[in-house]
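Hey everyone, long-time lurker, first post.

I ran two proteins through the pipeline my lab uses and got sequence/structure pairs for each. Pasting them in order. The first:
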Amino acid sequence: MFVLVVIALLIVGAVYGMGTDSIDRHTVKSLDINRYMGDWYEIARYDHPFERGLVEVKATYRMAADGRIEVVNCGIDYRTERSRIAHGRAKLTPIQGKLRVSFFWFFYSDYNVMELDRDYRWAVVGSRSNKHLWILARDPVLPGRTLNHILQLVERRGYRSGRLLFVEQQRRS
């Protein structure tokens, strides 16, 4: 019985502890979802299993006729040279800059647009967990000055930019 109580307390503590670190996860004050639609290249990300080994990663967001947001993530596994594609869906929330995204059945994750260029040329996206962070851009490569600015914004929010994996977008033949 004692072991079960300890396990339950550990689980509750782990769930409660998510999002209680010093990371600033506040979303942008305004997000025009129609302007956000389209292609976004992944410039950098925190490492995680579902994208491990992928290069040339791109996400496409499209507003469906029924008002749903369709999401297609694609990339190339550099080890096998095979494309990997994930189809998902997103939905708006009452909080500006926050969506809920699902790639599997009815399991949704937070998608927090935390920084966004005024012309919608780049974005910084996080989640409830401090283990997820993405830098996205409309073009496969960002100018160095712009990237440095974004990295400073990321650091100010409490993320460690040194943990970012920079995604190879334009591979040499």
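...and the second, right after it:
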Amino acid sequence: MTPTAALLAFTLAAAILTVTPGMDSALVLRTAAVEGGRRALMAGLGICAGCLVWGAVAAFGLGSLLLVSTVAYDALRICAAFYLFYLGVKLLWGGRRPGKSSAGPAQALPPAATANAAGWFVRGCLTNVLNPKVGIFYITFLPQFIPAGADVLRFSLLLAAIHALLGVLWFALLVAATRPLARWLSRPAVMRGLDRMTGAVFIAFGLKLALERR
């Protein structure tokens, strides 16, 4: 396989994986609908940064530890499960707070000037960095697209960067898709429903990760 053919094949495979519905898309969609496009984009950038972290770890060979060390894998798995539980419960609890039912859109959404974009970036990043399944994915997936004779480190980093770029484009598209529905999505009842649905998704993923056995 030539480098060009490898890049094209990886880009196609990564694009399919990127648009497949999952926890990352749910987080960005919910954030765009309830918190606004700026925060959603920062959450998406954080998710992609997490992918880059795992890509670099896999490229430098450190990620192989997860394949051979049950302790390392389980430690990350439990941390990720607790973090997803925390996010899920926070969303569910927030949706049940009585003050939200009477708050109008202007009260429910803080002004853009006070938005903590950095916090959303960190939140998105942690959902990937703490997930050992993402690490295993990179360790097992990237080598299949590295052609013979290529510099493994540089080519692995290039593939990870392509995957992150595809993620940024996809999340930007998701955010843009919510803009025509912004008025409807900003209704308190709709926001509570989105919070509960996304919280349930996070808790379900957390349960799946906590109960998983290698």
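Reply from user beta_strand_b:
Welcome! Quick read of the second one: The longest helix spans residues 70-96. DSSP finds twelve helices and no strands in the chain.
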